[in-house]
Write a structure and sequence with these properties.
Helices cover 46% and strands 17% of the residues. It has helices at 33-39, 93-104, 115-122, 128-139, 143-153, 156-180, 191-220, 234-242, 285-300, 315-328, 350-356, 374-388, 400-421, 426-444, 450-457, and strands at residues 5-10, 23-29, 52-60, 63-73, 84-90, 109-110, 222-227, 260-266, 269-275, 303-309, 335-341, 363-365. Strand 10 (303-309), helix 10 and strand 11 form a beta-alpha-beta unit. It is flat, with a radius of gyration of 29 Å. The two termini are 18 Å apart.
């Protein structure tokens, strides 16, 4: 077992004065943290109070390495739950390496990825789902993703899972007790109350599982597929939305051979736009591969923008295409929006245009080239995601590991419900309840293995 951990991570420049450099923070945590830092510091910090700041110098015998500021945290009132010292030094790589060498000469070992958060988990400062939220918080690139990570970090998800476990543990204990008195044929657990509880927990877990599509989209960016036949302006729309020439625009049909992706933030939510190959019959092998990828992206998307040409597209062609969409994607759960493009070239009224495309689909009229109604299109995308998340509540599942554990817990919960209705024996009922509790415990770390922890924390950045 390690004694103390050290890490260095350069952060932003804290001063804008001429010649000012970046600041680095070296974090030391463990039972030897204060002793080791005291050995290379110009002042005695042995008895320094927690949450105190001391200015002095890092020294190597008689040589001053740097003037630094030490912040001291006493366990258990620290991030890791252990004694911790943070050394704020100048950002020079040479200075950082010199301080690290001095610390290692005191017996300290460099931190691995995620080691500080793993220490916090091991010392009971947070549960496993909160620890994973730390990584999500660091990786968040939108206000919505940041909000979900912060809520999980504060324990909102954990509280709900722990509440479910506590309710089940009470009944599971009574059923286990019944097994000790099996010869006397007694029931300590009221089966009707247990069945009612199982139904309530089933409802809560089902809602959490349903929230994953929304949570995963917010965390990784809402996927929006831009589809349509060649030359309807898909690449022009992508470039207009992103306000840069991301995709090649050409009058030659079939220019886009592969999916092109980029992201943008709309009102705090990240959207991942995907420009796809035009849908049409073709003998070109490369273009065919691109079209095959288009259908795959359509199935993966949360929102599909189906572009049509205000001039050349026909109502019959669109109806046929929409029918193909709905048949091909009947298992997908995405929002479908028909986007009538190139309206800058339409000479008639908007009413006539809408009548031309009078099909059963939500639609919007735009001009990707002139930017007409692009703000309205962005607003519609935002409102769709906002409305989709309204019934999710504050607790939203964003982690695939959590989803898998919930699904397994749900399967065993179904076994409990079926078993109770069919008069399943107490020992089998108890086993199914144990498995529900086991999989719920996996989420918060009540149940964990070294392999699981190693896999989770290895994905963290150094310094966390």
């Amino acid at each position: 077992m390690r004694n103390s951990w050290i890490d260095t991570s350069t952060i932003c420049a804290l001063s804008t004065a001429p010649g000012a450099g970046a600041i680095a923070v070296i974090r030391v945590s463990g039972p030897d943290a204060i002793r080791s830092c005291n050995a290379i510091f110009s002042k005695d910090i042995t008895h320094a109070k927690g949450y105190s700041v001391v200015y002095g110098s890092i020294v190597d015998q008689n040589r001053v390495v740097d003037d630094v500021v030490l912040t001291i945290f006493r366990g258990p009132n620290s991030f890791t739950g252990e004694d911790t010292v943070e050394i704020a030094c100048h950002g020079s790589k040479f200075i950082q390496q010199e301080i690290l060498k001095l610390l290692m000469s005191q017996g300290l070992i460099p931190a691995r990825a995620g080691e500080f958060t793993m220490r916090a988990f091991a010392n009971g400062k947070m549960d496993l789902s909160q620890a994973e939220a730390v990584a999500d918080l660091i990786a968040s690139e939108s206000a919505a993703a940041h909000h979900l990570a912060m809520h999980q970090l504060k324990g909102g998800f954990s509280k709900q899972i722990n509440n479910l476990r506590e309710q089940l543990i009470n009944f599971a204990s009574l059923i286990e007790l019944e097994l000790d008195f099996s010869e006397e044929d007694v029931e300590f657990a009221d089966r009707s109350q247990l069945l009612q509880l199982v139904a309530e927990i089933h409802r809560v877990i089902e809602k959490l599982i349903r929230s994953f599509d929304y949570g995963n989209a917010i965390k990784n960016g809402v996927p929006v597929a831009i589809v349509g036949v060649p030359n309807v302006g898909k690449s022009t729309l992508l470039n207009a939305l992103l306000e840069e020439d991301k995709a090649i625009v050409s009058d030659i049909a079939g220019t886009t051979r592969d999916a092109i992706e980029d992201t943008m933030i709309i009102n705090g939510i990240e959207f991942r736009f995907i420009d796809t190959a035009g849908l049409r019959e073709t003998t070109d092998i490369v273009e065919s591969i691109g079209i095959e990828k288009t259908w795959k992206k359509i199935n993966e998307a949360s929102i599909v923008l189906y572009l049509v040409d205000a001039l050349s597209s026909s109502r019959e062609e669109i109806r046929t295409t929409i029918e193909v969409f709905r048949e091909y994607t009947k298992t997908a759960s995405h929002h479908f929006l028909m986007v009538i493009n190139k309206t800058d070239q339409w000479k008639g009224s908007q009413e006539a245009l809408l009548e031309k495309f009078n099909v059963d689909a939500e639609k919007i009229v735009i001009s990707a080239r002139d930017g007409k109604n692009l703000d309205e299109l962005k607003l519609r995308l935002f409102h769709y995601v906002e409305e989709n998340g309204k019934d999710r509540g504050d607790v939203v599942v964003t982690n695939v590991r959590h989803l898998n554990a919930l699904q397994k817990a749900m399967n065993f919960l179904n076994e409990v419900e079926t078993g109770m209705k069919s008069g399943l024996s107490g020992d089998l009922l108890a086993e199914h309840l144990r498995m529900v509790l086991y999989h719920l415990g996996e989420i918060t770390g009540e149940i964990s293995t070294e392999d699981l922890l190693g896999n989770i924390f290895s994905k963290f950045c150094i310094g966390k």
